[in-house]
Each structure stands twice: as C-alpha cells, then as structure tokens.
Amino acid sequence: MFGDDGHQGFFVEGPFGAFGTQSVHYVCKQSFHGQALYHRGMARRFSGYNGETVCRGRCAGRVQDAKEDCVDVAFARKLCALNSGFYRMQAKSFSGTRHAAWPGWRRCMDEVTAAGCLSGPDGVIVDVACGNLRFEQFAAQTLPHCRLVCHAVDDCDELALDQGILHDGAPEVRFCHLDVVGALLDGALDLRGCCGFTQGASEGHGADLAVAFGFAHHIPGAGNRTRFLDALMDTVRPGGFAAVSLWCFMRDEGLAQRARATHTQACGELGFDPAAFEAGDYLLGWNNAPGAWRYCHSFDDAEIEGLAASVATRARLAARFAADGRTGDLNEYLVFQVR
Description:
Blueprint: E1 10-16, E2 21-27, E3 30-32, E4 35-37, E5 41-46, E6 53-55, E7 63-64, H1 73-89, H2 91-95, H3 103-114, E8 122-128, H4 134-142, E9 147-154, H5 157-160, H6 165-168, E10 172-177, H7 180-186, H8 191-194, E11 207-212, H9 222-234, E12 236-247, H10 253-270, E13 281-284, E14 294-297, H11 301-310, E15 315-323, E16 331-338
Parallel strand pairs: 8-9, 8-11, 9-10, 11-12
Antiparallel strand pairs: 1-2, 2-5, 3-4, 5-6, 6-7, 12-16, 13-14, 15-16
C-alpha cells in the first residue's frame, strides 16, 4: 500500500460484526484486486465478497467493486468538458510542440516487431487520442515494408484534420471522431465499432497494434482507466499487441511543484472543490495562458501494477519500461500481447 506521497499506508481494522462485516479505517491507499481506493474515510470490508468494499466516504455506502470509481460522475464530466475545451482552444499551439516521436514509441515498436507482429505486407493499427497524427507518421517511417491502415480516434478534429497525412495515402488513415472519455462515462464506449470492426476479434478481425499514448492521464477515475484499457484490447486480434503510456509527472520535483501551484490556482478560478479530486489528480496550465487549464492524472507504481493486473486474464504483459521527458522516466509504458 502506498500513500499520496509514495509512502506506505495501512488499514486499522475493527472487529467483525453482523453479516460478516468488518469495520476498517483506512489511511493513504489500499488496493483491492489491482484497483486503488484513493480517498480516506471509513470503509467496511465484506468477508463474503471477492475484494469488494462498501465505502463510508464519498461513495455514500454503495458497494464498490474493483472496476467502480469513487469519482463523482457529474464532476468527471466537468473535467472531460474542461479538457475538450482546452484542446479546441489550444490546438495550434499544442500541436506546435508535438512533432517528434517519443523515445518510448520506438521501444514499443521494437517489442511488437520482435514478436513477428507487423512484419508482413499489410498491417492494421488503432491509435486512440491520435492528436496531430504523429504516431501514424512514425509508424509509416518505421514500417516502410508494410501497407498500413490506421484507425485514428480523437474528439479534437482541429488537431487531426489539417494534417496532410490524411490525404496522401501513406499510410491510409481513417479518422473517427469520438469523445472517448464521454463514452466511458456514459457506459457506451465501443472502440471496435468506432473502427469499423464488425466481425469478432476471435476470427482474426481487428488491429495488429492498438496504442493510446499521452491519453490515459486525461481519464478521471481509476475504474474508468481500467475500463478504457479493456476497450482498447477489444480492438486487437488474438496475438496482436496493445500499448499505453502513463504519465508520471509527479516523479519530477519541478513539475510536481508547478502542478501543485497551478492546481490550487485553477480550483480557485473554476470554483472546483479540491476534495472532489482523487489522489494524483491535478489541473495543469499551458504556456502561462490565462484560463488554459486541463485535467491530468499522475500515475504511481501501485496504480500501474493494478492496471497491468486488471487485464492479466486476457493479455500477457510483454514489457514495462520508463521513458521520455528530460529525465527519461516521465512516462511508464505497458505493452501487452492479447491472448
């Protein structure tokens, strides 16, 4: 167990009561079957449930399993709207800082091709939160032998639609407008359908590689992030790969100090209650632009291990490594081979 500051936390347990329950005061974080609870308060552990709790804090006593969130859905929608507005308003300046491939992408592609994936004349890639299509260009340059079809998914058309790669046919890019976080919050995320995979993955219909780089930190709620990883894997054929990057900006003390400062300022400007956020959640600024706030989550090791464990029955963890940023460790990558 790890607390908000990275130190270990603990439970102080009470006696078992009626109906096989045990009262638990918890401090810092506790993980149940790979999913962390991020708020403090009173919990009640059910001896008859497999890793379930009833929360006496913000979850108002409802049963919470490993894929449920304590984040308020209405508040999560506000964070989603904040980010959508940020990327629409800052599309040009943001895209201007996003040209080169990240070092972590190269290692991901090395892992995938070393296993014989994308080694043939044709390949299918799904890129969720494609932004300005940098990964599509990187994939085409890295795999010149392969005729690629790239399904690029994003809800910020401004970032993608003015890119020449959409029109030159190398690779073939099929853009799908989708508010992924909004669909998650609605319980209606269908990435397979968005990409036009109408037949089942078990028949080999699906992507050779599905990626989500620079996106998971925009998904509010641990359970939503787990559900997203499930949905990403749904797009992949058996034997194919899925890869995600997880931003760990609080590893860097300079970034951490700025995150704490901008979070306090943004909460004041937006009227957000700081207690509504989960641990690791911050509102970050952009280029000192007034009102340019976006929601981001910084992952810690316990969360990353929990995400990997949540899909262990359907995928093999082929690689986990840190890369990117000035320190070379600001993103943690998980690369899975789907069973």
